[in-house]
Design goal:
Length: about 400
């Protein structure tokens, strides 16, 4: 029992450290450099994050299933998937080289390459449940990046932040190469796993839909940023800090459910509804306790002015995640992943449509309205699917 709880704790630390690091990095840059530099760097982070997600192509979830079935030769399967996905690295090269100055493009491609290799080991880390190793590696990388920003703050530029992030990514990768490289990389012969992209597509789409649900408002803000447009780069940086703090409040839903995960899959529908309403109450408590803290941090630590109406919208933005979590698990139990993907797709389209209409008029408040509207449609569709498929035995 203690070992299981420790694994949950290390896994939570591994998942939350990047968000926490980003929030501390934002504070350092906003206080020691400028809002504009942070906003421009957030735009780069969004691009790299999107690229890494596409190049991952659902490999962790796909390989977790393969590792469980093909126990005789999982290393060879891992290598084939790595080389298959590596094709996308070559496709990314001309995009970066034609978009950015040569030095910046090289740094971005190295950042992307190191991240690509590092995330390839996620399945090994998860399959072997070595979360403590992953969390400590993440911590070392975070401390390196924050130290780089602090030392370089007075003469900080976007290029220096890209350099620091690329080096921090290499710090994340090196322990994985030392631990797993001999087993998984030495002696590898390039070989493509035919059909991989089609087989892993459902895993990719579910993850990509989740990414867009969380980040589409930021991507739409980025599209409306620049000289003569509705949004400044500084406002993008402010909004990224705001949503990062809200995601922290949302994440406590996972901490509550993780120890109960095995039991949730066994619960009947009536108990799932009870759990969902209890989780909703926990969400309201998280919003009531957390939003005043968020206001204090924004006002006095980050010195970012945030309108009070944004805090009103933050309440459903947080509570919906808590209420919805058990219902989504129930749909997975009933093999309704396609329905979850459809619900996410509809929410993304609504979010995108509202963003196009509202961001040019209302700025970051319009982005928040669009995000909340998408989440409300998502929960409505999830509830409808649970009611429909819950009646089928």
């Amino acid at each position: 029992m203690l070992k299981r709880l420790l694994n949950v704790g290390w896994s939570a630390a591994l998942n939350m450290l990047p968000t926490l690091t980003n929030l501390v990095a934002a504070w350092l840059i906003l206080r020691l450099a400028s809002d504009g530099i942070w906003g421009e760097f957030v735009a780069i982070q969004l691009l790299i994050g999107l690229g890494l997600h596409v190049m991952a192509w659902g490999n962790r979830d796909y390989l977790m299933r393969v590792f469980s079935v093909e126990k005789d030769n999982p290393v060879e399967v891992w290598r084939q998937v790595l080389f298959s996905r590596g094709v996308m690295l070559f496709m990314a090269m001309p995009i970066f080289l034609l978009t950015y100055p040569s030095q910046t493009a090289v740094l971005l491609l190295l950042w992307l390459f190191f991240g690509f290799l590092r995330q390839s080991f996620d399945v090994v880390l998860t399959f072997r449940r070595e979360f403590a190793f992953g969390a400590l590696t993440e911590l070392a990388s975070s401390l390196f990046l924050l130290g780089w920003i602090y030392v370089d703050a007075e003469k900080s530029t976007v290029e220096s932040l890209i350099m620091g992030s690329m080096l921090a990514q290499s710090v994340r990768l090196l322990p994985f190469l030392l631990r797993y490289g001999g087993e998984f990389l030495l002696g590898a012969v390039p070989k493509i796993r035919f059909g991989y992209f089609q087989l892993a597509l459902p895993f990719f789409l579910l993850g990509f839909a989740g990414l867009l649900i969380m980040r589409l408002d930021l991507y739409c803000l980025l599209a409306n940023a620049g000289p003569g447009k509705a949004i400044s780069k500084a406002e993008i940086g402010h909004y990224q800090v705001w949503t990062g703090l809200l995601i922290y409040l949302q994440s406590f839903s996972a901490f509550i459910l993780l120890p109960l995960m095995k039991f949730v899959y066994r619960l009947p529908l009536r108990s799932i509804w009870k759990l969902a309403f209890r989780m909703g109450i926990w969400g309201m408590l998280a919003a009531a306790a957390g939003l005043p803290v968020v206001w204090l941090l924004l006002t006095y630590w980050y010195q970012i002015p945030m309108p009070l109406e944004m805090f009103g919208l933050a309440i459903p933005y947080i509570v919906v995640v808590y209420f919805m979590a058990p219902l989504v698990l129930y749909l997975y139990k009933r093999q309704c992943q396609q329905q979850v993907l459809m619900a996410n797709g509809a929410a993304i389209l609504l979010n995108f449509g509202f963003s196009i209409l509202l961001i040019p008029r209302w700025g970051i408040f319009g982005a928040m309205v669009a995000g909340v509207a998408g989440q409300m449609l998502l929960i409505a569709l999830v509830v409808a699917f649970v009611q429909r498929y819950g009646k089928q035995r």
